[in-house]
Each structure stands twice: as structure tokens, then as C-alpha cells.
């Protein structure tokens, strides 16, 4: 802000309880809710902080991108995005090259 920046976007945390290093800690391979709740709490605090900065700094437009909801939607509903599951890699794409 002191150097002239007025419009800044920050990425919020995604559902960290759903990353592979956390899912392997679950007996069922599911997301770990407690870890996800930390991400939700962090995002809420970050939004509150940015809202406060916007109110105090003239002309500031600081925003928090909601990565959590977007990624959680992809995990919870993979079929809406053309995949069968969010826990396994997609099948490789096989391409046949046709030469004229």
C-alpha cells in the first residue's frame, strides 16, 4: 500500500484436510474434517483482516479468493466435472496421429 498498490487479491486456503498427505492418515482415506476446519478458520480471519484494511486504507480494494469452496466442490462432486472420482488419477489420454 505504501508503494502505491491499491487492488490486491489474496488466495484463501483450500481444504487442506483433503490433500493426499492428510487423507492417508484417515482409516477410510477421506478428508480430515479437523484440518479442513483450520483452513476455514484461517480464511475467515484473513477475510476479516482484509475487510479491516479496506476500511482503514483509502482506496484499498483487497479481496480474498475463495479457493476452499471451489476445490471442495471438485472433491465432493467429481462427476460434475467429467471425472468419476476425486481420489484417483484420470485415465491417460491416448491420441492417434494421422499423417496426410
From TrEMBL:
<keyword id="KW-0443">Lipid metabolism</keyword>
<dbReference type="InterPro" id="IPR051058">
    <property type="entry name" value="GDSL_Est/Lipase"/>
</dbReference>
<dbReference type="GO" id="GO:0016042">
    <property type="term" value="P:lipid catabolic process"/>
</dbReference>
<dbReference type="InterPro" id="IPR036514">
    <property type="entry name" value="SGNH_hydro_sf"/>
</dbReference>
<protein>
    <submittedName>
        <fullName>Uncharacterized protein</fullName>
    </submittedName>
</protein>
<dbReference type="GO" id="GO:0016788">
    <property type="term" value="F:hydrolase activity, acting on ester bonds"/>
</dbReference>
<dbReference type="InterPro" id="IPR001087">
    <property type="entry name" value="GDSL"/>
</dbReference>
<dbReference type="Pfam" id="PF00657">
    <property type="entry name" value="Lipase_GDSL"/>
</dbReference>
<keyword id="KW-0442">Lipid degradation</keyword>
<keyword id="KW-0378">Hydrolase</keyword>
<comment type="similarity">
    <text>Belongs to the 'GDSL' lipolytic enzyme family.</text>
</comment>
Amino acid at each position: 500500500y505504501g508503494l502505491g498498490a491499491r487492488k490486491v487479491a489474496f488466495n484463501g486456503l483450500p481444504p487442506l484436510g483433503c490433500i493426499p498427505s492428510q487423507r492417508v492418515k484417515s482409516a477410510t482415506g477421506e478428508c480430515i474434517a479437523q484440518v479442513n476446519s483450520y483452513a476455514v478458520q484461517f480464511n475467515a480471519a484473513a477475510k476479516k483482516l482484509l475487510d479491516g484494511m479496506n476500511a482503514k486504507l483509502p482506496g484499498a480494494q483487497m479481496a480474498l479468493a475463495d479457493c476452499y469452496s471451489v476445490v471442495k466442490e471438485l472433491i465432493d462432486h467429481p462427476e460434475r466435472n467429467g471425472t468419476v472420482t476425486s481420489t484417483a488419477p484420470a485415465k491417460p489420454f491416448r491420441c492417434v496421429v494421422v499423417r496426410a
